[in-house]
Amino acid sequence: MLESLHTWIEIGVAALAILLLLYCLVLQSKINSLAKRYDYFMRGENGSSLERKLAVEVKELRDAAETMEDLFQQQQVIRDTQHNTFQKIGFIKYNAFENIGNDLSFALTLLDGNNNGICISSVYGRSESRIFSKPIVKGKSLVSLSQEELESLNEALGAKTNEEALVSGTVVK
Q1: Do 135 and 68 share a structural domain?
Q2: Cα 59 from chain centroid?
Q3: What parts of the sequence cross the membrane (predicted)?
Q4: Residue 44: its pLDDT value, please?
Q5: CA distances from residue 21 to 14, 17, 26, 34 in whole angstroms, order as listed
């Protein structure tokens, strides 16, 4: 009986050894696969290491971030400059006198982003023409405006009707 027990133990140990050997072979296969992948990534296409490739990529990302920061600063300068350039225009043609046709007189308003600018008007007559300029500060004239100049200012400001501008106090006397 003791001998048969030893035989069963020997068979069990042998079976366990075979299972462990198979398990070791499977693990060795997986290690070899991972080693091949590791060598591929560390070796690269031209022999450079993955570490060098990552260092180059990080440097390129930092350079791109610096370039973007420069672009943002340049964009802010452009916005600041643009805010002080003429960007709103109002233009009205009209007849200054009843006996002259073809709308040869005009009122032109040029405003910047702060609604500061100038209103230029030209009054055409048969014997003479006159040109006037009036300053506009914060969307309001510092001097009296003619009806046509007021229409031109309202057009530049985007007002819908002359009455709206008169009610809002566009003309400052």
Answers
A1: no
A2: 24
A3: 6-27
A4: 58
A5: 10, 6, 9, 20
